[in-house]
Amino acid sequence: MKKLSWLMAILLFVGTPKTWAAEENPAPPAPKAKRKASAKTAAPAPAPAPAPEPPAKPASPPPAPAPAPAPAAPAPVAPAEAPEPAPSWLQGVGDLDMRVHLDGDILLAFVELGVAADLGLIPAGPGTVAVGAELSGGICLTACGLIGLLTGISVSDRFISPHARLTYHFLPPNQKLEGVDLYGLVLAGVTVSNQKVSGRIENVDFSFTGTGVGPSLGLGLGAKKFVKERLFIGGEVRLRYARGDYHYSEQVENITLLGVDPDWSQTGLSLLVFGGIRI
Asked: Spans of biased composition, class Pro residues (predicted)?
């Protein structure tokens, strides 16, 4: 028993250092065992190093953006044309209006045909002053015809009247009257009258011839309407004074009488229509 105790003590003693040694010297790590194993087995040949790849070509820079097209030069803009001024129908300085007219009183006792021309001279206020000339020739119409019809006596009365004209032209206040030129008129001139009377009274033949010259003055107001750019028509009312003496020669049978007869007159109110052109 005593031996058994000693044996156990020895076993315990022997076993205890081993345990302590195991605790003091822990088992080597697994890699050591691997190294031992690899030492025993031949190490494989190292894999050949891969051939160096050629350096990558540098990426080509992106193409430069195409320059933006230059803006097209704007098409030249034609300067705006100034609106054409509205045509003025007022007779202006330098305008020459020429016309043919027909004139007569209300009863057409006397009728005359004539020509006239007016030249714009100077501006005055809202209008234009023009000067001109007129030549008219007329005959006794209804009055002389009625005498011949009632008495059988032939009466012929003719006259020529040259006049100077002074006119003032202006536009109508009503702007709706387009193409109209208004004017006031002053006439000054002479009238040359020739009268012939012949017939038979109480079985006596006679003839009378008289010639007279007298002053002729007139005032008037007229208007012309342009039907085309330069063509116009119009009308005029005028009051004229013309009076004079006849120097006559009267033949009765074989007797000739000379004298002065202060009875001729062309005074009165007349209406005139005309057509003409502006140059």
From this structure: 45-86
- Is residue 217 in a domain? yes
Answering whether pTM is above 0.90, one says no
Q: Rounded CA gap, 139 and 194, in Å?
A: 10
Q: DSSP assignment, residue 275? A: E
* Domain assignment present for 255: yes
Quote the domain boundaries for residue 243. Answer: 96-278
How far is it, in rounded angstroms, from Cα 119 to Cα 135? 15
Tell me the three state secondary structure of residue 50.
coil
DSSP H helix total and E strand total for the chain:
3, 9
Q: Flag whether 172 is in a domain.
A: yes
8 Å CB contact between 238 and 218: yes
Burial letters for 28-67: b for 16+ Cβ neighbours within 10 Å, e otherwise?
Answer: eeeeeeeeeeeeeeeeeeeeeeeeeeeeeeeeeeeeeeee
More confident residue, 45 or 247: 247
pLDDT tens, position by position, 39-67: 444 445 555 555 555 555 555 556 656 66
